[in-house]
Amino acid sequence: ENVDVFSVMNHPRLSMTTDVRFSVHGSPYFKPVKLNGLLLQHREDFERELKINITMVGIDECLYENVNCEGSCSNSLEISSLPYMVNGNRTALVGVRVNVEAECTCAAR
Fold first, then answer.
1. Interior angle at CA 75, CA 40 and CA 96, nearest 5
2. CB contact at 8 A, 12 and 99
3. 42, 73, 105, 107: most buried by Cβ count inside 10 Å?
């Protein structure tokens, strides 16, 4: 009841893959790393209950070396002012258009 799904989008390059972004509100406040850890800890329960396959928790376009960049790679979050709509037969969800792009730079600089 305290989970807000604010973006559900088809992955721009991987077919049959959907990026889902969510936030949790209420008390106590959980940092993203804690939420991702809890999701990973109960991954099989979520998959079974929702009848989905979770392939990645935390969207990371730089996960595999030298796929998107040769050398340094950093994730860049791009938030668009254009909404994104998902039509599911009887239900439509309009959410925030959010993309993570691989940038071929070192974020530590």
1. 75
2. yes
3. 73
Q: How confident is the model at residue 41 (pLDDT cuts 50, 70, 90)?
A: very high
Query: What residues are paired with 76 via a beta bridge?
Result: 101
Give phi and psi for 48, each to the nearest 5.
-65, -45
pLDDT in tens, 49-62: 988 888 888 888 88
100 close to 78: Cβ distance less than 8 angstroms:
yes
Q: What is the rounded distance in angstroms from the CA atom of residue 77 to the CA atom of residue 70?
A: 20
- Average pLDDT score over residue span 13-29: 80
What pTM does this model have? 0.68
